[in-house]
Design brief:
By secondary structure, the chain is mostly helical. It is 80% helix and 0% strand. The chain has helices at 2-19, 23-46, 48-55, 63-73, 76-92, 97-121, 135-157, 160-176, 178-181, 185-193, 195-199. The chain is elongated. The termini are close together. The relative contact order is 0.16.
């Protein structure tokens, strides 16, 4: 869903800016999208219990465990968004390798974490009490899952062009302030022209 929203709203603007060699516009778009994704991710992480209760209210004694995993996993929204954002930037530059191969490393991390969990804690037994899920067991599953997504997002980010674009965006935001950096031009056009998509 995140990738679809970014494709519909930002990618056409980025491609147009690249064709026009308008680096400042690209930086504005990247800054605006990154700030928006970080804000949404932070809000949902803080409100994770409310999200769980609104979508899965019948968990009973498993509810505290669901809350714990939600706190670990909600930050993945930000990293999935970054992955989609930087991947589409690279696609616009006809650089497809990092975006294509980074999920492979994420899958390797996920498989390794599952094997480690089975080795340490064994298989699930029917009727198992949720109380056995201590902080270490939760972290082994939740932290490694989120770490895999973060690494998946950072691989496209480490592409030379993305590093260069990110540096320019950060410097521009510091010099002019985040409010000035995300206003005006095609950034405003993207927000106004696709308001319904953002809301959805």
């Amino acid at each position: 869903m995140i990738g679809g929203v970014l494709n519909a709203i930002l990618v056409p603007q980025i491609v147009q800016a690249l064709r026009q060699r308008n680096g400042e516009l690209v930086n504005r778009l990247l800054t605006a999208a990154s700030v928006a994704m970080a804000t949404v991710s932070a809000v949902l992480t803080v409100c994770a219990p409310l999200v769980i209760m609104s979508h899965a209210s019948g968990l009973d004694r498993w509810q505290p465990l669901a809350f714990a995993f939600a706190f670990w996993c909600m930050p993945q929204i930000f990293f999935y968004g970054l992955y989609a954002l930087w991947g589409q930037v690279l696609n616009a530059r006809s650089s497809f390798g990092p975006y294509m191969w980074s999920p492979v490393l994420n899958n390797i991390i996920s498989i390794a974490s599952i094997m480690a969990y089975l080795h340490i804690y064994g298989h699930y037994a029917s009727g198992q009490d949720p109380g056995i899920w201590n902080a270490g067991r939760i972290a082994l599953v939740g932290a490694t899952t989120t770490a895999g997504i973060a690494i998946q997002a950072l691989i496209p980010f480490t592409s030379p062009w993305c590093v260069q674009a990110s540096t320019r965006a950060s410097c521009g935001a510091c010099a002019h302030g985040p409010g000035n950096h995300v206003e005006g031009g095609a950034v405003g056009a993207a927000g106004n022209g696709h308001g319904l998509t953002w809301v959805t």
